[in-house]
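Why does residue order matter? Because the sequence determines the fold. Keep that principle in mind as you read this record.
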Amino acid sequence: MLDVFELQFMQNALLAGLLVSFTAGIIGSLIVVNRMVFLAGGIAHTSYGGIGVAVYFGLPIFLGASVFAVLAALLMAFITLNQRERIDTFIGLIWAVGMAIGIILVDLTPGYNVDLMSYLFGSILAVSNEDIQYMSILLFVIVSIVTLFYREILAVSYDSQYASLRGVNIKLFYTIILVLSALTVVIAIKVVGLILVIALLTIPIYIGEKLSNSLGFMMFLSGVLSSIFTIIGLYISYTFDITSGASIIIVSAISLMIFLLIEKFK
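Structure:
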């Protein structure tokens, strides 16, 4: 098995997978405990508009998708904080419009024939050194923010009323969590694609939550589990020549089913 990872592109894929796994473990935990899964799904699909913008104007894909996703996150934060009763309608609208913009701009780009399926289902085997640098910087930023403001994030996530009484700016930290979620979604697209990104942000986290007694340990354990699923998925993908993103998610789903069976019989 280790022979597979002696190849340069597999080493890049492995490093990218580990970086994204721990990023997803941290942010996925915040998404789950704050019940933002639907919001994260909306951001993931809306970010396709950023891919279309990047393709049309010849910009780096990560840059276009990141800017678009962050703008979508800010808009969703504003809506959920001020129009909570209309949240489903607005998120569905943003979701659809974002994807429509991306599709139209890609169609209008002359001579563009790159396989867009890679953005829908991931292309981790084609990750570049620049992608790895971007992922490394984002993981460092996320770890720094969570470490510095752990108490505030913990309070906002589990008891927002108590946090408000303690003087914590709930709206600010809620927005920060959504923005970091948007950036995490963008790098996760490179690994599993925007169609499967929610599974990466929820399956390892569900197992991690059941085995943890604190938010910090839940983040760490979720990152470890996600890394294990990614390594196994990469190996299966290379061995059987199948899509890496789908392989990672199938490994995660099977692991979840085994965990649920063990938990039930215990």
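Residues 23 and 222 are 10 Å apart (CA to CA).
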